[in-house]
Amino acid sequence: MSLLDEIEAAIPGLRRYAHALMRDRDAAEDLVQDCLERALARRHHWRGDGPVRAWMFRILLNIHRDGVRRSQGRHLVAVETLPAEPSGPARQEAHMDLREVQAAIARLPADQRRALLLVALEGMSLVEAASILDIPEGTLVSRLGRARATLREMTGRAGPRPAKKEGRT
User: Fold this and answer.
1) Could you tell me which of 95, 99, 107 has the C-alpha nearest to residue 153?
2) What is the pLDDT of residues 8-31, one digit of tens each?
3) Domain boundaries, position 96
4) Given CB 3.0 to 4.6 Å as the disulfide criterion, which of 23, 39, 149, 158 pairs with 78?
5) How far apart are CA 139 and CA 132, in angstroms?
6) Does residue 169 sit within a domain?
């Protein structure tokens, strides 16, 4: 598969991730377009030392970070690519649960949200997501753990906390 074919194959995933980061379809499409333009203009920089998909996601994330810095963090996040209407019985309750999770993801700190979306939404491995975020794998695991725990608390699914054991005197 040629470099251009691999870039083209990455587009659907880039769109999903951009939509989740931006919360605005038009802004997300602009982000993907900027990513594709940059990748094509700099394809001679591609060294072939990893997956093209990871390289593309890194470009997209860097463009997004630059935009956030310029706009001083005004972008909110939503996971618009999740199904709007879950199938099966109790659809209204499931729909409300989905919206609650989407809102909770939007309130996560940016570093945790980016990590969670790469792994949970895009299904990337820890190694690939850590490479895209340019962080050690252990840091990624820690961010994912904090993000998941925070989501459980925000959505009331944390369960009872274990009682603290009293020390002996």
Assistant:
1) 107
2) 999 999 999 999 888 888 999 999
3) 3-154
4) 23
5) 13
6) no
